[in-house]
Amino acid sequence: MSQSQVDRPRLYFSQAELAALRQRATTSHRTYFDALRAWTDQNLHRQPLRGVSDEFLHESSEVYFEEAFSHLSNLMLTYLLTGEPRYAEAARRWLHAFCEYPTGGGSQYSVGPNIAALAHGYDWLSDVLTPDEKVMIRDQISRLVRDAYECSLTPGRAWWYGAHLHHDFWIPTAGYGIGALAIRDEVPDAEHWAARAAEEIGHALDLLGDDGAWHEGAADWVYGLVLVLLFADAYRRAGGGSLYNHLWMKNTWRYRLYCWLPDDTYVNLNDSFRSGRYNILGSASSHVLRKLAAEYGNGYMQWLAARDEAFDYGTSHRGVFRSPYDWTLNRLYPSSVMHCLAWNFLWYDPSVEPVAPDGLPTAHYFANQGVVIARSGWDERCTVVTFSCGPVGGHEAHRRAVEGDTRIARGLSHVHAQATSFTLYTGSHFFIVPPGYGKHASRFQNVVAVNGSGQVWGPDRLAEIRSVELAKDLDYVQGDATACYPAEFGIRRHVRHLLFLKPDFVVMGDLLEADGFASGMARHYVWQIHVDPVEVEAVWTGNGISLRTLDGSARVNLQVLLPEVFGKVLARYSASDGTPILDQIGVIQNFAVPHRATFVVVLALTDRGQEAPIQRIVGENCVGALIGDAADARAVVFSHGPIEKPLRYRVEPARSARHLVVGLSTARRYNPGSTLRPRAKRWPERALRAAEENFVSEVVVTPGDEGMVAPAGLLRFDC
What backbone phi and psi angles, to 5 degrees, belong to 166? Predict the structure, then answer.
């Protein structure tokens, strides 16, 4: 079938639907249309690069092609909506230049937006292109798509071959799929090329499991999805299957929403950014949320899209990093809004009412990725805590890696070794931060570092969340990183317990056990956290650390209960020009502890929490913290393991308390009890003391066939 016999446009809308789009431009979508046209008018003068060489195609050409893709899409949609020839003529100049470029760039992921820009021109300018221009563009699309398709089949042709879990795979694959769909009736192999792209993206979605989380972080999530959503639309319209039926696609809105912070930034786990946006096509995000809102009738995405738009369309924000590849200060993209203008117009569905997330659970467990994101609420002053403990790339990727899929690791270069790492946002500030882009090693994470670093990066290493309980008053998670350490370290066990006692405290317990070195050499353990020195300063106190915002508006106090004697470290990473990047604060346990290391730390988040007395608990088969006074005492106790013998500890002086014992077996029942015992300390005869101060409460938890169950290994009782 010739191009002239095909009814165009057709990729995302038909000629008949175009009339409705023009009507929307004057009514429901007027704001989006006005922004689109204003930007296009201001940038109509821009010209394509001439003399593009093979060398250019292989040297970070994604910046040019992704900006050109958005520029062309904006030009051509403005033409379709207005009918004004000046927009079409400007676009034709770009298409001519693109057709003069070499076609051997399929090994670079920038081929994706290169092909997609040509495909949009072929589809959207059908009524103004001459027959010769149509042949020229179609042939260029065909050459580029064939090359990218062959790269997807041939090891060694493209670095992104088989890297299904990398955004650099998603971008060229979706791009060549869009190109194939644009010429599917005119080039014999095009249907096969499009089917290959759909198969590859479907396989990538399978590798992600069904929890909706994106292993590269909330910013890369945007970057990876843009062209995939466009391909999904065009593929479905062409009669292919619906990628939107995949459970990961249906659930991925939760990942973006739970990563959201009340200042409209985002938790930046892995190679992500605080802005929640990444690189060129991902430097705006609201259109992706608008699409998910429209596709699934999701009011939460509609609500969040409106907040993201304030950033995308704004001019005063810090922007998105242009070149996030080194330790120097990075330039910002001159225009982020260009990348969402056309798609917000096409994807916004005003029938979907925005819904604030206030009624949603305050915590969510992303099981495949091994991530818990817990918050005290959805208000501006809420606390957000994250906990990560999964294999690099997630459990499905781990399963396939163990089964022998050697390609899995190729797609995971933006994922960090962060088993048991946590972050903390509270008081409108990100106090304990992830390390940021490129710092993949566990020594940059908020974990226990062993012998200077510790964890081995790799999808074959099993880190897992063993227990989770998410409740209204507290959130509890237990992570196990034992298998992540080099065998020569002899680590026999490392579990981390984290309890978020809303809204005042985070209580953490790390239990490490190890075999002795043959040389008799002791180990070096560092319980470490990281802060952004531009926002927060760390000050050592007598028994812990005070984290204070530079503007004096908020603070978090950390009290180190165990070890009782410890060393301290405070180090700074800086750029080459001296600009501070990351501060590391560490609690060191060294030399005397070759076989066991224990850390118990209480983070007081609020004024009330910082005024509460805190004591350590060291008992039989357990350690922990006693928080609060007689009026509101809570004992948080970490069992050294599923107990066969009684677990015993003391509350001193005697008082009633709420008890939380974690690390127990979910298959057993337990009988807690409390007995008064005389206090060992003798008071001077003339000192007047309350009677209970002469006693301690000895608490005993005994396993048995009857008694209380411990869901998620967490036993609650009062005594």
Answer: -125, 140
Q: How many CA atoms lie within 13 A of 522 on its CB side?
A: 11
584 phi and psi, to 5 degrees? -115, 130
Taken in order 205, 211, 216, 222, the sign of the CA dihedral is positive
Amino acid at 230: L
CB contact at 8 A, 271 and 218:
no
Residue 528, classed as helix, strand or coil, is strand
CA atoms within 13 A on the CB side of 38: 8
Left (φ > 0), alpha (ψ -120 to 50) or beta: where does 490 sit? left
Greatest Cα pair distance in the chain: 108
Task: Name residues whose C-beta falls within 8 Å of residue 199's C-beta, 6 or more positions apart in sequence.
Answer: none
Q: What single DSSP character describes residue 456?
A: P
Identify the DSSP state of 522: P
Q: What is the pTM of this model?
A: 0.95
Distance CA 19, CA 15 (A): 7
Residues 398-441 pLDDT 10s: 999 999 998 899 999 999 999 999 999 999 999 999 998 889 99
SS (H, E, C) 65-93: HHHHHHHHHHHHHHHHHHCCHHHHHHHHH
Q: Where does 154-283 show beta strands of DSSP type E? A: none
Q: Is 704 helix (H, G, I), strand (E, B) or coil?
A: strand
Two structure tokens written together for 514? 């190890």
To 10 degrees, what angle do helices 395-402 and 190-207 make? 100
Q: How confident is the model over 608-636, as pLDDT tens digits?
A: 999 999 999 999 999 999 999 988 999 99
For residues 220 and 61, what is the distance between their CA atoms, to the nearest angstrom?
18
Q: Please check whether residue 167 is in contact with residue 216, taking contact to mean a CB–CB distance below 8 angstroms.
A: yes
Quick one: tokens of 484? 């992540």
User: What is the DSSP secondary structure assignment for residue 542, as one 8-state letter?
Assistant: T
Q: CB–CB of 54/104 below 8 Å?
A: yes
Measured distance CA(41)–CA(78) in Å, rounded = 10
Task: Answer for the pair 624, 499: CB distance below 8 angstroms, yes or no.
Answer: no
